[in-house]
Amino acid sequence: MSSLLPLAVVTGAGSGIGYALTQDLLTRGVEVVAVDRDTSRLDERVQAYEFDVRDGAAMQELAESLSSRPVHYLFANAGVGVSGDVLSSPEQAWQWAWDVNVLSVIRTLRLWWPQLVAGRGKAVVTVSAAALQSYPGAGPYRATKAALLSALEGLYYQALGDGVGVHALCPGLVRTDITEVNRYAEVAHATPAEPNPFESFMRTAMREAEPADAFARRVLDGLDSGAPFYWFTHPETMDWTEARHRAVVGAGTPFTDFGALA
């Protein structure tokens, strides 16, 4: 591909939101570097790299191999939907969620930051509306997404003088296979044996969720028209988020039921 094309880096590109972003970026004439543990579905036009984002050496080697290329878009999208309650979730579940959802994202941003500065690019990190909501049954997922959002708030201030846009993408329900954790070997040691109410809700809700390809188009259109830092893409999540914050300010209690306002 021509080096004159704008360059995008996408992690978690093999499925779900990452795959849909990769496909749509290609239609917009963007060169894509894609990272995933399974890249078998990706278009042959993609520069696909098949490894785990937790592999810091591989991530560093890739970033260094493209150190001369300005990056226009970085989509730090890789994540795992580790469910489970706070106390019943094994330590391996917490570590898995932390390593993928937080540490690997920060590493990705750090390694590609010089190229983002060179390209005056945009860093879009897939967080979740869950980062600012409260519900039972998803302790590792919610906690790590909340931690990630806090880290991005710190990065926002650091980025002000670098010319890089930072966007905390906080979607609601998007139809992906994030709930299909059985595809990961880690699930044998990191998840409870029985599904909880949150998992059951998600499996049902996913059937009616927004398709990933439609969501990806909205995200890329939003970037072109000027996306915010706190990027809540699904208005239906806002009432619940605002109610949770009213409970915090009013010294109340967390919600007592999934989907019910405090």
Automatic annotation (TrEMBL):
<protein>
    <submittedName>
        <fullName>SDR family NAD(P)-dependent oxidoreductase</fullName>
    </submittedName>
</protein>
<comment type="similarity">
    <text>Belongs to the short-chain dehydrogenases/reductases (SDR) family.</text>
</comment>
<keyword id="KW-0560">Oxidoreductase</keyword>
<keyword id="KW-0521">NADP</keyword>
<dbReference type="InterPro" id="IPR002347">
    <property type="entry name" value="SDR_fam"/>
</dbReference>
<dbReference type="Pfam" id="PF00106">
    <property type="entry name" value="adh_short"/>
</dbReference>
<dbReference type="InterPro" id="IPR036291">
    <property type="entry name" value="NAD(P)-bd_dom_sf"/>
</dbReference>
